[in-house]
Structure formats: structure tokens, C-alpha cells
Amino acid sequence: MSLVMPPPDPATLARRAEIVAAMRAIVPGEGVIDALEALRPYESDALTAYAQVPLLVVLPETVEQVAAVLRWCHENRVKVVPRGAGTSLSGGALPLADGVLLGMARFNRVLDIDYADRVAVVQPGVTNLAITRAVEDAGFYYAPDPSSQIACTIGGNVAENSGGVHCLKYGLTTNNVLGVELVTIEGEVVRLGGRGLEPAGLDLLGVIVGSEGLLGVVTEVTVRILPRPETAKALLIGFPDVESAGVCVAQIIAAGIIPAGMEMMDKPAINAAEAFVNAGYPLDVEALLIVELDGPGAECGHLTGEVEAIARAHGAVSVQASRDDAERALFWAGRKAAFPAAGRISPDYYCMDGTIPRRRLPEVLTRMKALSEQYGLGVINVFHAGDGNLHPLILYDANQPGQLERAEAFGADILKLCVEVGGVLTGEHGVGVEKRDLMHTMFSETDLAQQQRVKCAFDPELLLNPGKMFPELHRCAELGRMHVHRGQVPFPELPRF
Ligand SMILES: Cc1cc2nc3c(=O)[nH]c(=O)nc-3n(C[C@H](O)[C@H](O)[C@H](O)COP(=O)(O)OP(=O)(O)OC[C@H]3O[C@@H](n4cnc5c(N)ncnc54)[C@H](O)[C@@H]3O)c2cc1C
């Protein structure tokens, strides 16, 4: 593997017994894990190509314990990696050999549900799907729905700004989180945002959502809950080629229709998902669109007709509408199981996550096919077509020498291609370690230094999740240094202290 992580600090490794004892004093009982065989399950997240046994695992149960752990680690210069369910696909929760892995799984309670304000207050270890489960009897749901929603936690969703098939219409995590409680590395407990849509002051909540565990540990989340739409219908639309499916996606949006979800699968993905779930997908097409329309019955019926007409006009060879909610759920089940389905046809797969302008879709898919031939590795395409967020799954076998390295190089080329056509390195899986070394393809040194200044404002000793997101971490003092050129102080009119 080509990933290089910050070298472990020998002094921290030598103090392991002392650190374990200090953590046990804060989190009693079974909340501290230090035996090697019990640490192994934590050695990687869903980016399983990379693994590292952590120094130890701490599983706090209260905010006071989280604050005390972070305060002790700060005072003793010990690194900390926060972890939810460990489903990150970018290696965000990859442990460090000299770092405490702070597991938030025991924070698993729904604290408050307020239907009048349409909010739910939950602990960060509550799974994404459990929020919907907690409010569905009252006709509500939590909109962002990562395919991993049965397992991933809302704390992880906040840290990664996660998306899902319904984010095209209802927004990503950042559009559905109203407030968080956060513990800083110094052990201070702060509240950002609240229950309203527009909190006072600087938008620090916006800084925290998507900060990948680098700025603080989230200990409570307030999310918007929405009333279930009156009707929802999903269409399975088959195309003879991916190009016409791509054009159809652009035309639906251009017609002013924002479907609740609009996903595309190519032939290998259709075949894999159908064999796994029996969702009723057509097997004689090259590309499949799943388009969901929702809203009041009359609106939903009208839009369904409009989408079908656009699809037929752009070469669709089959259109099948869900007859009831069970069938609609089945259509989505195939899509949501596409990743595990890929696991049945290849020993390993590497899931990429880049975003491109929708209109460049056909060209990018063609170039990806050429890259697949160049690297000699298969690729399956499943993606959030409505928002241009690609998830190519590169198929490889880690037991074959050189295949992981080829998969990594192939993946890097795909992400560079996304940036080249005007897109971005990530859509929803985060940077983590996976895209860290590609940040230069998108950001200049100045951009990266500015981003790191934000990190330094929260964590000046660089103890929280180091080695992730930034290709190299500069000492904060360097970044804060004022550049005086030929005796000219910048902004001389400003008072200096
Ligand atoms: C099969 C599969 C399908 C997936 N589908 C999607 C999808 O459709 N959309 C999508 O966006 N993602 C998807 N993912 C990726 C993943 O599920 C999300 O990134 C998810 O939000 C991670 O949540 P987690 O609880 O597992 O977090 P972890 O993997 O444990 O951690 C992820 C990051 O969050 C940080 N973190 C975790 N908890 C906290 C906390 N309390 N405070 C501060 N930082 C914290 C960690 O340090 C790490 O950087 C998928 C993953 C898999 C395996």
C-alpha cells in the first residue's frame, strides 16, 4: 500500500501503560480496551485496504467523560481519533498506532423529539435509520439517507457531511442539522446552532459539519425531521447506453423538475444488484435510472408523466413505475445494496467518490472505461446522477501482488479526471486518508494553509485525527507567523498588540 501516515511518537508508545491507567480512571468498567485481540476489530473502517491497530480504545458514556478524556490527552499531548460505526469509506476513522481511538457507540439515545418544532435531539452514536424509526409512527422521517444508514451513526454523518439518494431534493447532512454540542480538544463543551433555522453569530456549525473529526468531538446533534410526503413513486427507466441516460438526467433537471432521488447504475451494477436483491431490474439494458417523485398525489402523478415523456424522448427503452410502497422500497433496495453486491463478484472493491458537472457525465464515463482497460481492472458504476456524484467501484483482488496499488492509481486518476472536468474530489465520503494526497490537485498551497488555520483555531497542537485531510500538517505557529517583507508590515493602518 502506498499510504504514508505520520510516524508514531516513540515517547507516547513507551507511556502506553500510564495512558491506559489514566483512561481507566476516567472511564471505568469495560470502557477501555487494551488487549490486542480486542483492539483488532477497530483496526480499520470501511476503507479496509488500510489497517492500523490503535494504541487503545476508549468508549465513554457521558459528555463529562469525553471532556475529561480530551482534556487529559491535550495536557499529555496524546493524539485522539474519534469513531462512530467505522463505516467511513475514506479512512476517516483509521486509527493511529500512538493515538487513542475514541468510540462514540455508547452515545446511543434519542434525547428529545419535538413534532411542533420538527426537530429530534439525539446522541451521536444513534444510527441514521434509528432517527427515522423513532419518528415514523407520527408520520415523520429524517431525510439524508446514506446507503449505510442501518449502521452509520449521526455523529459520523455530521463529521462527513454525508449524503444519500434523497439528498438531491432534501439536502445533505449540513442542510438538515440545526445544532450540535461539541467537545473541544481542551475539554470545553460548546453548543453551536440550536433548534431554529438561522442561529446568531458566525456559522461555526457550518464549519463543524464535514470537519471529519479534526475540530472536536460531537456529543449531541439536533436534526430537522420532515413530514412524510403524501405520495412517492419510483420509476425504473432502462436505456440502451449510459450516454442517453446521462442526457436524460440533465434534461429532467433542465425541465425544472427536482426528483426526490435520481440514481444511475451501469450494466455490471444492474446485474450484480439484481442477483443480490431480486429488485425486478431489467437485465437487457445498458443503464438504469431510478427516479423518485414525491409530494401531493396530483403533483406526483403529473411529474411522473413528465419524467416518463422526457425519458422516452431521450431513448428510454423501458419505463416501470412502482405500484405500491413495498415495490418502491424494493427498487431502492437493489440500489442501496449495490456495494455489498459488488463484494459477491470481486474479492475486493475500492469505492471512489468524486463529483462532476452533470453535463460531463457521458464523457467521464467513456474516459473511465478507457482507464479500466489501461489498468486491467474492472469497474462498476453506481451513482447519485442527479447531483453528479460518482461512485465507481474498482474491482480488484488484494491477494494478487500489485492489484491494490493499481486500484489506488486507477482511483486517483478518476478523481483527477473529476477535477479536470470542473468537478471536485469528494461528494459525500470525505477526504480522510483516501484523497488526502490529491488535495493539491484541487487546492493551492494558500488554500490549504487557510483551511489549516481553521484547524489550528480549534486544535493548535494538531492532536485530533492528524494525518487525515491535509497532505501535510504545518505547525500552527508557522501558519500564524506574520510575513514582513522589506520592513513593510502588512496592513500598517491596523493597530498591533
Ligand atoms: C456500504 C456502504 C455504503 C455507504 N453509503 C454512503 C452513502 O450513500 N452516502 C454517504 O455519504 N456515505 C456512505 N457511506 C460512508 C459512511 O457510511 C459515511 O461516511 C458515514 O457518515 C460514516 O459514519 P460512521 O458512524 O460509520 O463514522 P466513522 O466511519 O466511524 O467515522 C467517520 C468520520 O467521522 C468522525 N467521527 C465519527 N463520530 C464522530 C463524532 N461523534 N464527533 C466527531 N467526529 C466523529 C471520524 O473521526 C471519521 O473522521 C457508505 C459506507 C458503506 C460501508
TrEMBL record:
Residues 50-228 form the FAD-binding PCMH-type domain. Coiled coil: none annotated. GO terms for molecular function: FAD binding; oxidoreductase activity. InterPro entries: FAD-bd_oxidored_4_C, FAD-bd_PCMH, FAD-bd_PCMH-like_sf, FAD-bd_PCMH_sub2, FAD-linked_Oxase-like_C, FAD-linked_OxidoTrans_Type4, Oxid_FAD_bind_N, Vanillyl_alc_oxidase_C-sub2. Its cofactor is FAD. It comes from the Bacteria. Keywords: FAD, Flavoprotein, Oxidoreductase. It holds the Pfam family FAD-oxidase_C. Transmembrane segments: none annotated. PANTHER family: GLYCOLATE OXIDASE SUBUNIT GLCD. This is FAD-binding oxidoreductase. It comes from Sphingomonas koreensis.
